[in-house]
Amino acid sequence: MPMAGDAGGRIYWERTGAGEPLLLIQGMSGTRLSWGEPFLSRLRADFDCVVFDNRGIGDSDEVGEPFTIADLAADTLAVMDAAGFETAHVLGISMGGMTAQELALVHPDRLRSLTLGCTYPGGPGSSLIAGEDAGPLLEAMGSGNLDRMLMAMYEVNLSPGFRAEESHFADFAAMAKALPARQRTVQLQLGAIGGHDTQARLAEIAAPTLVVHGSADKMIPVANGELIASLIPGAGLEILRDVGHMFWWERPERSAELVRTHALGA
Prior knowledge:
It contains eleven helices and eight strands.
């Protein structure tokens, strides 16, 4: 079992595909399975893909102490080192996008390109999930009822149009049940997100950057993606109309195409 790092516990990672190195960083409560085969399978022909379970998540070691986004960036660097990636294209979504911002700022020499999806800069003008959406989600997460929690997560992460096809929920639930997130870790992740603020430093990011965001994102409203793109010099912005937070899950083919075109053209 490949593992990396030891400061905050060992990190489990996996490698598939062939081509240029691509490191994928998941978001809050997400595991390596949260990328989904429809998305990853479209990247493996062009990229040596490394996915991993964040600190305290999935098959990575359990943690009990608070951590920061900077700590997660250090974990990510440990995974890069363990995989033998001197440099890599980096894709980070949601909390993973916050981690990727920090990585790009602290270790700019390690990035070939940067793709930031459905993520948040912190600071003035940024915003997370609205109270009317957060309330039911937090209530469901605290209920101890797994099915109720999964349905609440599904409703807030995916767009109404995607959810209109009833069969889509079965795939989402199977993914989430295959490697459940530890709720204590999710609470610690919320604390790390609350302390994230790179807004004043985003102009320092030198890696070629693409920002991707769904216009129907409830978890992290699309205005955050627009703000990030406006603050990173030369950044591109792709807004996926009527798509929710998990854009790569809803539109795997288009999402993989965006990552591929940006990374290989960097």
